[in-house]
Design a protein that fits this description.
Protein name: AraC-like DNA-binding protein
Order of helices and strands: HEEEEEEEEEEHHHHHHHHHH
InterPro entries: AraC_XylS_family_regulators, Homeodomain-like_sf, HTH_AraC, HTH_AraC-typ_CS, Tscrpt_reg_AraC-type_HTH
Structural class: alpha+beta
CATH architecture of the largest domain: Sandwich
Domain HTH araC/xylS-type: 199-296
Keywords: DNA-binding, Transcription, Transcription regulation
Helix content: 25-40%
Largest sheet: 8 strands, antiparallel
Pfam family, one: HTH_18
Shape: globular
């Protein structure tokens, strides 16, 4: 995990702007479920109760806070994959997600369109912030009011669409900042630079991690010579292109296995010619085999 300096974080956040999108308040009964559609950037603030995710929300790095000492720590939820009242979730819509509330929950849900979707290209599938209300109290209070009068998306008073968009942007940026500022961002997450050619390469890797990437093919995407590309990539990202591709593949593999994909299917989709080669790479990255990861992370989807 990487520690993001303030200047870099500000640069990343400056590219994130909400174009449109509605917010709503959702009250889930006990054992109720809420699907979050793929292809839509969504944020969820848990106003009351708790929810679980299918596939699991655990991203390997979530934030907790000791209210007595105001100490912030990187931790895991007490119940794996559970997000309690005050917590926040951001999903980029790369795949469908189902939230279920074993004992009921009240949620503020925003479905957003960004002016530049590539601004979040390097974000993981889920950004999970436990006790967002303690880390960002002002933004959490704002989030809790989303979808309720006078801020409901159906309210047609003059200027309300602009106000709602500004509120949604504030909440979205606050979730990302709380997650990234405390050390939850994966290595290379903030590598987006003022160089559009290098940005193009990074976006291509995340879009198709299973492609047979070579330094030559990546340099071609960035319209650079092999030597210039390799040097520039290492200087900005802090690791070699090959190492970065492997890290992106392993992150994708974790998500796919947690969602129930087979080891063989995951290996093939991520460009590995054999299960053995994929398993060796996965074990080097995580310390466990893909099959063990799949068993430990997978949870049943509620009926």
């Amino acid at each position: 995990m990487a520690t993001i300096d303030q200047a870099t974080l500000e640069r990343v956040l400056s590219g994130v702007n909400v174009f449109s999108g509605g917010t709503r308040r959702v009250e889930l009964p006990s054992s109720g479920a809420l699907p979050l559609a793929d292809g839509v950037v969504s944020f969820v603030h848990v106003v009351a109760g708790a929810v679980r995710g299918h596939p699991p929300l655990a991203s390997g790095c979530t934030l907790g806070i000791d209210r007595a000492t105001q100490t912030i720590s990187v931790t895991q939820p007490s119940t794996p994959g559970e997000l309690a009242a005050g917590g926040a979730l951001l999903t980029l819509g790369d795949r469908s997600v189902i939230l279920d509330a074993p004992n009921g929950a009240i949620l503020a849900v925003g479905e957003l369109e960004l002016t530049d979707p590539s601004a979040l290209q390097m974000m993981p599938d889920f950004v999970v912030v436990n006790d967002f209300a303690a880390l960002e109290p002002a933004a959490a209070a704002l989030a809790a009011q989303q979808g309720t009068p006078p801020f409901a998306a159906t309210d047609a008073r003059s200027g309300d669409p602009l106000i709602c968009r500004m509120m949604a942007t504030t909440v979205l940026l606050s979730v990302i900042r709380a997650w990234a500022e405390k050390g939850c961002a994966p290595d290379g997450w903030a590598a987006r630079s003022s160089d559009p050619f290098l940005d193009r390469v990074i976006a291509a890797i995340h879009r198709t991690p299973g492609r047979e990437w070579t330094v030559e093919s990546l340099a071609s995407v960035g319209a650079m010579s092999r030597s210039v590309f390799a040097e520039r990539f290492r200087a900005v990202v802090g690791q070699s292109p090959a190492s970065y591709v492997t890290d992106v593949r392993m992150d994708a593999a974790k998500s796919m296995l947690a969602a129930g994909n087979t080891v063989s299917g995951t290996a093939r989709e991520l460009g590995y010619s054999s299960d053995e080669g994929f398993s060796r790479a996965f074990r080097r990255a995580t310390g466990v085999t893909p099959s063990r990861w799949r068993t430990s992370e997978r949870t049943p989807i509620p009926a």
